[in-house]
Amino acid sequence: MLITLKEIVDRAADSDYAIPGFNVYGYEDIIPVIRAAEEVGAPVIIAANLPALKHMPLAFLAPQMLTAARSSSVPVCVHLDHGKDLQSCIDAIKHGFSSVMYDGSQLSLEDNIRTTKEIADYAHAHGVSVEAEIGSVGYTDPSIAMKHILSNPEEVEIFVRETGIDAVAVSVGTVHRMETQGASIDFELLQRIQDRVTIPLVIHGSSGVPDHDLEKLVKTRVGKINIGTALRMAFGYTMRGEMEQNPKAFDRVSLFQEPMAAVEAIAKQKLIIMGCRGRA
Ligand code: G3H
Ligand code: ZN
Questions:
Q1: 206 CB under 6 A from ligand 1?
Q2: Which of 41, 62, 68, 202 could form a disulfide with 169 if both were Cys (CB 3.0 to 4.6 A apart)?
Q3: Residue 141 annotated to the active site
Q4: Which CATH class name applies to 5-228+267-273?
Q5: At what angle do helices 27-40 and 257-273 cross, to 10 degrees?
Q6: pTM for the whole structure
Q7: What are the boundaries of each domain within the chain?
Q8: Is 23 touching ligand 1 by the criterion CB < 6 Å?
Q9: What is the pLDDT of residues 203-239, one digit of tens each?
Q10: Any idea which positions bind Zn(2+) 1 (predicted)?
Q11: How far is the CA of 245 from the centre of ligand 1 (A)?
């Protein structure tokens, strides 16, 4: 069933689990992610980001995500990831998304608050949840000009109070697009942040978080943990292996079977590590 972010993430933050926000790019990863959630009886978040929407415009991707969510036996939140402005959030909401993230992390605190509040007011008037970021989770790829700034607890408190958002993304040591689980989380900073706010915290760039730290994170006020790269690697590497084994293969219908199974396996593994089994 389709559900908002707030409806699932509040409970996760209050309990010893966190819900993965999986980046999806089309049918080939939407279906395995939802299958994984159904297998373990977990709520799940499927998220479309800018690269996904460049590959497949919202008018095509949104109906796939929404159909999968509505026909699922578990709660599925359909979420916009790293929305770049008010208009991209409005577009997602008009296409039926139940949650949007606005990323004003590159702006000054004042400008970030102003735009985030505008989006939160619009989204809430339409029954949609809002996540926003303060501090900035950078990227491993230096060609992506996004700053990497750890979140300041005092700023997080002001940001949450002034914007009325439902969940706040914080920067506590992760970096987007890590291909190994080598991130180092600053749990002391995380504690100082959660002492100041009551809404759920969100961790981005979590493909790089070691399993033992994922297990630790879910026991904090973190309610959502974003995973993208780990799924793309599972799909891409499995496909490469198949093509190396059979260089003459060209039929996508058969070629996609193993990569989809690999995505399902990783999604299931992350759901279990994050304590989501049976939480639907
Ligand atoms: O917003 C999406 C996530 O932060 C995914 O990050 O690709 O490093 O797992 P990741
Ligand atoms: Zn992110």
A1: yes
A2: 202
A3: no
A4: alpha beta
A5: 40
A6: 0.98
A7: 5-228+267-273
A8: yes
A9: 999 999 999 999 999 999 999 999 999 999 999 999 9
A10: 82, 176, 204
A11: 30
